[in-house]
TrEMBL record:
It comes from Niastella koreensis (strain DSM 17620 / KACC 11465 / NBRC 106392 / GR20-10). It comes from the Bacteria. Residues 312-428 form the RagB/SusD domain. Residues 1-23 form the signal peptide. Keywords: Cell outer membrane, Membrane, Signal. Belongs to the SusD family. SUPFAM superfamilies: TPR-like (SSF48452). PROSITE patterns: PROKAR_LIPOPROTEIN (PS51257). This is RagB/SusD domain-containing protein. Pfam families: SusD_RagB. It is found in: Cell outer membrane. InterPro entries: SusD_RagB_dom (IPR012944), TPR-like_helical_dom_sf (IPR011990).
Length: 436
């Protein structure tokens, strides 16, 4: 089934973000679009919805990708504020009680993630009813990727997360650790669906290029398994990912790379803090580490350190995950198992340390000699954290790593975000804000 030009029709308007709406309780549909019952019962309409979900998640300053990378970068001291007039980013730079419930990034991040979950639920409810099971499988897997990412994003930055989304009902909250388990359940369902009915070529041809669906499902399962302490599963899933393949959020001249659009191109919002990549001196990058110039360029004018890497041009793709993340997932899984295997943990760590840029699909490589220091478990975990921080610089994943590796709170400006006022003002079940 070929859906002619679906990527360029107005079908995806069904999933347009209503960013000023209450995140968990509002009706999100647009009164100017097609009747929702008609849209969600057809392959064409559901394809438009999933394209809209991707656009909402990945594009503009209001999207989850910008909010994830920016919030994480400031909270973990990777970034320098260039212009304090950018109030939301400046509050993150200051941290502590200077981050308010009215912060525009707090609001847009929360609202966009809940919008993505809401629209993904529409797809996951209706796609199984389609006659073409291969096409339905693609819809389910694609929507599941973004729903799982959105739930995990909320879980990384808030102590408690909504248990569901609804219309005009008070929503209950669950611990963020349960959020990761919900994301894993979504991924498992998608993998089972794809195993039963492989994704059809017609679905693949009607969505934006970039995302390797099956590899991404395994990579996200590996990531969230690590976060929940299921190290055997994390290892198995990381091994299931084909590390020669790329999976990316792609951009074009109509939908620009959001970090480039807001920060890199203007030099008026933020830039890297310095060459330490936000790490303390004992864990700072080796001067010969080739990942440093990949991610950070040097300017003759202030600020000296500039954004590079995946945010250097307007149409540069952003990885959904990096091969190095999967290798380091294996290393950490070996190191943290009930019977730690430090030998294999260090072998995997050295696979990242010695990786040359030319051998990595994205050109990310340290190119350093192997580290054969006889570390104990705690020392090895410090090195794994160090190389995750460098390999995954400006990926949005460091705040979770800092908590998981028990890094000192002095290395971040906050542990968790306050709940946005748009939620608190309309939902009596909203938890108290964290102290830090």
């Amino acid at each position: 089934m070929k859906l002619i030009s679906i990527k360029y029709t107005t079908c995806f308007a069904m999933a347009a973000v209503m960013l000023l709406a209450v995140a968990c309780k509002k009706e999100y549909t647009d009164p100017n679009t097609a009747n929702s019952d008609q849209v969600v019962k057809s392959a064409v309409g559901l394809t438009g919805v999933v394209i809209g979900i991707q656009k909402n998640y990945t594009s503009t300053r209001a999207g989850a990708v910008y909010n994830l990378i920016t919030t994480d970068g400031f909270l973990t001291k990777q970034l320098l504020i260039v212009n304090q007039g950018n109030t939301a980013e400046y509050q993150f730079y200051l941290g502590g009680n200077q981050v308010f419930n009215t912060n525009s990034i707090v609001i847009s991040f929360w609202t966009t993630c809940n919008k993505v979950i809401y629209d993904a639920n529409t797809v996951l409810t209706n796609a199984p009813q389609l006659g073409d099971k291969g096409y339905a499988s693609g819809l389910i897997a694609y929507a599941s990727i973004f729903k799982a990412l959105a739930i995990a994003d909320l879980s990384m930055f808030w102590e408690k997360v909504p248990d569901t989304t609804g219309i005009n009902i008070p929503v209950n909250f669950i611990a963020n650790t349960e959020g990761y388990n919900k994301a894993l359940n979504i991924i498992n369902n998608a993998l089972n669906t794809v195993a039963a009915n492989p994704i059809s070529a017609s679905f693949q041809s009607n969505i934006p290029a970039g995302i390797d669906i099956v590899n991404t499902l395994h990579a996200l399962k590996a990531r969230f398994s690590l976060y929940t302490g299921n190290y055997a599963q994390a290892l198995a899933e990381a091994n299931a990912v084909d590390l020669t393949k790329k999976s990316t959020f792609n951009y074009d001249l109509q939908n620009l790379n959001p970090i480039f659009e807001t920060a890199t191109s203007t030099n008026n919002v933020y830039q890297p803090l310095d060459s330490t990549m936000g790490l303390p001196p004992a864990l700072a990058p080796n001067l010969a580490d080739k990942r440093e110039p990949f991610y950070i360029s040097i300017s003759a004018s202030a600020p000296r350190f500039r954004i590079n890497g995946f945010y250097a041009t307007s149409t540069q793709p952003i990885p959904v995950y990096l091969p190095g993340e999967m290798i380091l997932t294996k290393s950490e899984a070996y190191a943290r198992m009930a019977s730690p295997d430090l030998v294999n943990a260090q072998i995997q760590l050295n696979n990242v340390i010695t990786k040359q840029p030319a051998s990595d699909p994205f050109g990310v490589g340290a190119g350093l000699p192997a580290d054969n220091t006889p570390y104990n478990q705690a020392q090895l975990l410090d090195q794994i954290y160090r190389h995750r921080a460098i390999e995954l610089y400006m990926s949005g994943l460091r705040i979770t790593d800092q908590r998981r590796f028990n890094r000192p709170t002095a290395e971040r400006t906050r542990n968790y975000l306050p709940y946005p006022n748009v939620e608190r003002n309309s939902n009596p079940n909203t938890p108290d804000d964290p102290a830090f």
